[in-house]
Amino acid sequence: MGKTLKIYIAILVLLLVAIVVIDNNRPKPIDWTPTYSVKDKIPYGMYVFDKEMGSLLKNQKIEKFSQTPYEYFDSKYNYDTLVNDYKVKGTFLSVSKTSDLDNQSVTEICSFVRYGNTAFISSETIPNALLDSLKLKMDSEFKYSDSIYNWLANKKLGNQKYKITEGVNNNYFSKIDTLDTTVLGYQNGDSARVNFIKVKYYGGTFYLHTQPVAFTNFHLLKGNHHEYAEKVLSYIPKTTIFWCTKDQNGEMISASPMRYILSQPALKWAWYIFLIGMLIFILFNAKRKQRIVPIIKPLANTTVDFTKTIGNLYYQEGDHNNIIDKKIIYFLEKVRNEYLIDTHKLDDDFIKKLQHKSGKNLNDIENLVSLINLYRKSRFISVEEDLIQMNNAIEKVTS
After folding, report:
1. Which residues, including other chains, have CB under 8 Å from residue 214's CB and lie 6 or more apart?
2. How are the residues of the chain apportioned to helix, strand and coil, as percentages rounded to the nearest 5?
3. Residue 160 CB coordination number (10 Å)
4. Containing H/E element for 77?
5. 78: which strand partners?
6. Helix (H, G, I), strand (E, B) or coil at 140
7. Which helix or strand (DSSP H or E) is residue 186 part of?
């Protein structure tokens, strides 16, 4: 392990330790997500509502179900032609941020209420299919106000107005059928708006409320806000409560094996730092590495050795003429191969071409050509000095 890599690892470890220490010493941020889950203890969960149902709805049997209302109540209906009624009697209860009741469920709830039962729905939005059936219309004030009060219309329940600003919405009932509808509660932004109503529907009754945030942990534990929730729920008849908690039981659990690590801030950042560290490690070690290339000795030029041997043999025998012949042949062969010059006639034109292509000294070339022509004419070398002179002249031009 290289020194540089050790430094990087040490820095990452120190950074990880620092993040864990800082994260453990800082207050955990509050999660304000409006989950309306009965398992969540966060401000907009319904853990407290679930635990305090017995106090809010005294002496009433409570049955929770996580199916759709259609699936639950359809199984409770007796299709015998002599009966044609539900096997159970009571109140359907739904408290959620936004109502996602499908059309089949809305039809089933209407049928359940028609047979003398009750439905209590507290949601910021009411399904259009239900609004149409009850001849209602909803609207919203888009102007924000930090002083939103909620209160009940029945003076027997007191004149108290509850300032509920955290998590409230500006939706209200803008149109009602006054023949079958009774206003039970109001809220005010710019002016008083209807947010809680009672609607007669054949043999039963609907209670519709637009501020479900009143039943969340935050408001049930804040000041006297629980009184508002108790007053709203006091309208529910003393019967069995069928509480629909579909998608509010915390069923949406991630299938990822990393879900616990990613749910804890310290572990989540440790995981991210590990991934970043591995990426840095890979980048710094992605350089090309290979084994040491062994030294391969070049093949010996036996032709050169052979030539030297032959040359020494001629030199020892004193055969200077033969050596000169070989030198001239070698020189002219080199001129033909390297410079592509015709060597049949060694004249002034040959000298100019050779000097132009080789860049050698003109006097040296002229001297060599003169010696070669002289040798070819005389064909006689009397002393060793003449051989040396010829060799030196050739080396000046070829080196």
Report:
1. 122, 150, 164, 225, 228, 229, 232
2. 45, 15, 40
3. 13
4. strand 77-78
5. 85
6. strand
7. strand 181-188
137 contacts 173 by C-beta, under 8 angstroms: yes
Half-sphere exposure of residue 362: CA atoms within 13 angstroms, side-chain side: 5
Amino acid identity at 141: E
Distance CA 159, CA 150 (A): 11
Other beta carbons less than 10 A from residue 175's beta carbon: 13
Question: Cα–Cα distance between 92 and 100 in angstroms, integer?
Answer: 15
DSSP state of 287: S
Look at phi and psi of residue 340 and say left if phi exceeds 0, alpha if psi is from -120 to 50, else beta: left
Nearest to 164 by CA among 139, 147, 186: 147
Kind plus residue range of the DSSP H or E element containing 197: strand 192-201
112 vs 76: CA distance, rounded Å: 10
100/246 Cα distance (integer angstroms): 10
Q: Which residues pair with 194 in a beta bridge?
A: 186
pTM for the predicted model, two decimal places? 0.61
User: What is the phi/psi pair of residue 145, to 5°?
Assistant: -135, 140
Task: Give me the tens of pLDDT residue by residue for the chain, a chain 399 residues long.
Answer: 567 767 777 887 888 788 777 777 777 788 898 999 999 999 999 999 999 998 889 889 999 999 999 999 999 999 888 888 999 999 999 999 998 899 999 999 999 999 999 999 999 999 999 999 999 999 998 766 666 899 999 999 999 999 988 888 899 999 999 999 999 999 986 688 999 999 999 999 999 999 999 999 999 999 999 999 999 999 999 999 999 998 887 655 555 677 778 778 888 888 888 888 888 877 777 665 666 778 888 776 665 565 566 666 666 666 777 778 888 888 888 888 888 888 888 888 888 888 898 888 888 888 888 888 888 887 665 567 777 888 888 888 887
Distinct helix (H) and strand (E) counts, the chain = 15, 13
384-398 helix and 362-378 helix, angle to the nearest 10 degrees? 140
Domains of the chain in sequence order:
47-244 (3.40.50), 303-398 (no CATH)
| Helix residue ranges, H only, 208-301 | 217-221, 225-233, 259-263, 265-284
Determine the Cα–Cα distance for residues 342 and 336; give it in Å rounded to an integer.
Answer: 6
